[in-house]
Structure formats: C-alpha cells, structure tokens
Design a protein that fits this description.
The structure holds two protein chains of two kinds. By secondary structure, chain A is of the alpha+beta class. Chain A has three helices and three strands; from the N terminus they run H-E-E-E-H-H. Chain A has a single domain, classed as Ubiquitin-like (UB roll), CATH 3.10.20. Chain B folds into two domains: 52 residues; 355 residues, TIM Barrel. In chain B, 28% of the residues lie in helices and 21% in strands. Classes of the chains: A alpha+beta, B alpha/beta.
Amino acid sequence: MKEKVEQSLPWICDKCKKELALNKVKVSYLGGNFEVELMKCPECGAVFIGEDLALGKMLEVEKGLEDK
Amino acid sequence: MTVSKVFSKTESLCPTCFKKIDATIVVRGQSYIMKKTCPTHGDFETTVWKGSIPMENWKLTKERANIKKPLTQVQNGCPYDCGLCPQHRQHTCTALIEITQRCNLNCRFCFADAKNGGKEPSLEEIGALYKGVLDASGACNIQLSGGEPTLRDDLPQIIKLGKDLGFGFIQVNTNGIRLAQEEGFAEKLKLSGLDSIYLQFDGTDDLIYYELRGAKLLDLKIKAIENCEKVGIGVVLVPTLVPGVNIGNIGEIIEFALRHINAVSGVHFQPVSYFGRVPHPPRDEDRITLPELMDEIEKQTKGKIKADSLRPPQCENSFCSFHGRYLLQGNGELSALRTAPDCCSKKAEECSKKAKIYVAKNWAARRQAAQSETATADSWDKIINIIKSSTFNLSAMAFQDVWNLDLARVMDCCIHVVSPEGKLIPFCLYNITDAQGHALYRK
C-alpha cells in the first residue's frame, strides 16, 4: 500500500523544491561510462536513485564492471 | 665488469640433474636475471623479467592459504612431494584433467608431449578423478585437456559427468579442428554443459601455424569460433608466443579477437617455455617475458591498450601472470576497466575464491546471456547487455621451465594438473623436464 502511494506522488528536490523529472544522466564506474534515465531535479541536477534500482539493476551493472 | 644488484633470493633446480639449488635474481638495467649454480653441473643464467615495468612494481605479498586436505606429506621438500603437500600455499583455482594423449597435430611446442597411443582414462576413472578434485579442492574450475580432448567421442559425457558432480565451470583446451569440421559437434558440447573453449590460436597468419603446428589452420580456427558462437560457447584465444615466429602478430591477434567479440571473450597469451629434450639451453632471445609482452601489447595496439592497464594477479604468484579487462565501446574504442575498490585481499584463500569466479564469469559465453533484451528494456537493461556482450579480457601466464623455475612461485600456484593417480600437481612442475627431456612428474 505504501509503495503505491509513493509511486503516485511526485518526487520533490529538497533543496530547490522542484519536481523531479525523468532525464538523461551520465553515469560512470570503474572506467565504464554510460547514459541512463533517472529522476533528476531540473534546477540543480541532483538525481534520485530508489532502493529498488540501487539494489537491483544498478547493483547488477556494478558487479558486471567489477573484475572480481 | 658488470655491476648487478640483487633483487631476491630463491630456490630452483639444476637443469641437468633436478637437484634443488639456490638461485639469485639480479638486476641489470631493465633485465632481471636468475643466476644459479649446481655443484656438479655448473652455472646457469636466464632472464626472467625484462621491460619497462620493474619487477618490484609487480610484487604482491599475500597471507598464504593452507591446504585443507593435503594428499602427500613433506618428505624431501618442494618440489619433490607434490600432491599437494602441506607446504603448498594456494588452493586449486583450475584443475586440469588430461583425458587423452592422442592428438591430430604434431606441434613443435607441446606441454603434454602428446603422441598417439597411451592408455586413456575410462569415463569411470575420470569420474574418480573429478571426485578426488571435489574432495581435495571443492568445486573449482575444470579444464579438460590432453592430447587433443575432442578426439574422444565420449567428450560430451565427460563434460556432463563433471557438471552433474557439481563443477560450475568446465572448459575444453583444444586446437579446434573437430569443432570446425564436424557439423553439430559444438552443439553436442554445449548441450552437455560446456562453458568455454580454450582455443589454441597462435596468430592471424597461416605461416605461423605452419611453423608451430605443422599445418595451415587459420580457416579452421575461424570456423571453430563461428560454430561456438552459434551455440553460445565462450571462446578464449590462447596464443603460444615464440620469438621469431609470432611476436609481431600480437596486435593483430587482439584486433582479430575484438572483431569476433560476440564469441571471443578474451585472449590469454602464453609465452613459450621449454619442456622436453632441447639441443641447447634456451637463450634469452628465445623467450619473451611478461613485461616485454606488456610493452609489445601497447606498441602493437598503438596505445589502444596501455601496459599500465594490465595488473598482477590476485590468486597465483604475482610474477606468473597479468590481466586486464576492457569495455569495447560502440565507436570501437576500448575503455580499461579499473579494479573495484574492495577487490584486493591480502589473503591467498580469499583471492583464490575470487579468481575462480572471475574466470567462470569472464570466460564463459556472454552474447547469449545478453540476448534477452526486450522492447520494454530500460537504459539499465541496455547497459547490462553491453557489459555482458562487450567486455574483453586480456591476460597472459608465464609458465616456468627448468631453466627459469622459481620455487617460491611454484608454491603459490593455483593451476593444478590431476595426475592419473589423482594427485594435484602445479602445472609447471607436472610438465617440467630436465635438459635431456626427463620429466619430474609426468609419466
């Protein structure tokens, strides 16, 4: 129930009070550079990475790039 | 008079009588030379390291591992008690099982000194060897070797047996001829559970094969790679590097591998080492040491791969190998992937576990795993697919022969041959021979 509520509400940048929007962001790790879509503040550029992403696909990318 | 600085003191063997003797590695300019004297057979000198990367920059010190189930006891000391004995300092990362001595080539350089004939272990005997490895070393990576292992018609059953017993990664060391010539053979191996082919691949020019293997094999190699790609078996190209034959082809081998990245997960160079009867002790110009190879890689790839992107190994002794990992970008550029911050442990046991996973992860097929992209794939899925399909591994391992043998390195070895009696013997010691061609272990 809680998750549903969170998904339906917009994310607001705490610093700029602007609504985050899906936007292209450059990410790099251990020499690998990629472009991804993340929730981003249109004002200061801060991005939001949810727990699901951090522990899911993002972690998978990190592990893929790590050499051990 | 030449002034030499001592780099390290170690132990080695006399190339004539196998007596254990003291050895000193001295520095002369960019060369590191092993000097040793047998009281009976005199002085021996071999360059063991030469190039722009100093040997001291490559040294890693680890806390040794302790062998949990040694199969032999210490009686005469290293290297005479192999099995492994309790003095050995590293676990098995890859266990190599020779399933035949038959071969369909007659190579100038062959570790196994393979010839037609000899007794082959039965499927049941191979099962016993597998179980012995499991008992002594756990489910390490397995390499099936020979001879030419594809000459056995029951190779799929041998692979399946290993998989059924719990080995997660099984690789076949092959010249690729049968994979190229026999329709459906690659698929049979894939269905039996094979993860990777360790493909003898000495260059991109038939003259190289003619010189080293006595036949023109390039078209067959390409066909074998294509057949592996079709069924999703990872291919590692393994060039034996011999001065005067294929040193100048290093850059082209890497380029070839990158052009076939759908199937080829990497190149693993093996600088030539000298086993068997040789007419005279190998000269320094008959060898290429690891730093010379790293310099050649940078030079021949025109800086696309920098020598400083290559790193010492975590598992085996640091002077035995190097490796680097890269991401092939859409524009053809290679990005060197750096080491993860928490990668490096000081404990040999921990390093061994990581190395096993590294090989299994990086040498198996990637493209098939990457093909699951769907219309709903987001940008993260696309990155995951790029990593699975476009990472490229470059490595080399310097096997030691009786002239350059450093027993400190042998004690850290993680590549172990399973002898017919089920003992685990460090690869170099299993293959080592004296100058007359007599083996220390191989029968």
